[in-house]
């Protein structure tokens, strides 16, 4: 039996080829965004909801805080969209390594150990480390916590602080700051170690106080994928510097902090020196 050749087949083949070419061009157009990201044309950001004042959820559940505001302003200036996904510190770092996120938007200590697995912008904040205790306890020095249960967020730089500075304390790890503070208030731990700015926020809202405060050994920065687009890091740093030059950074800093800018941050972001010299934000002698 013979079959007659269908006259529409050549036309159909041509249409199919055209459709494939169009799809390919569309795909290339999507990939032709400003950066090589997990999602074409979008920066996927892992953030936190319980790290005041850097990254937290507002009453509507939307991300807010100093780090979030900085990122949103930088993204707007770069003309890119940011899509936030809420997790915890360990989730941010693991998500970057697993290529689920392009960036972590929170205050993440840029330690040498972390630099083995993720890239960092230049620090955008430099603070202190605080040992927080219940308002009714007598603790006033690191040695006072010998033998006591001291809580930290698992994987946070404060974990190393306890190992190095409070070796006789009993380290207890928690998944996030909400659990950490909850156990401190209820008496499950006798102290917790936090970044100084975080601690200041809890002192305002909970029956806790800062027993010891010491300078941090590293600044807070945005972590990014180790295999990510180096142009994104360069452009984010450039935009933060531009925000420093036009006063936007100082405006945001005053929104969230009362303390002067740390001298260590001025070494990392020297443009900031001009903005704070002669003001109440200048580092204390």
UniProtKB/TrEMBL annotation:
**UniProtKB keywords:** Signal
| InterPro entries linked | Solute-binding_3/MltF_N
Signal recorded as keyword: yes
Keyword Signal found? yes
The record's SUPFAM superfamilies line, in alphabetical order, gives: Periplasmic binding protein-like II
Signal sequence coordinates = 1-19
Give the source's domain of life in one word: Bacteria
Q: Which residues form the Solute-binding protein family 3/N-terminal domain?
A: 42-260
Q: Name one Pfam family in it.
A: SBP_bac_3
PANTHER family from the entry?
Answer: AMINO-ACID-BINDING PROTEIN YXEM-RELATED, MEMBRANE-BOUND LYTIC MUREIN TRANSGLYCOSYLASE F
Q: Name it.
A: Amino acid ABC transporter substrate-binding protein
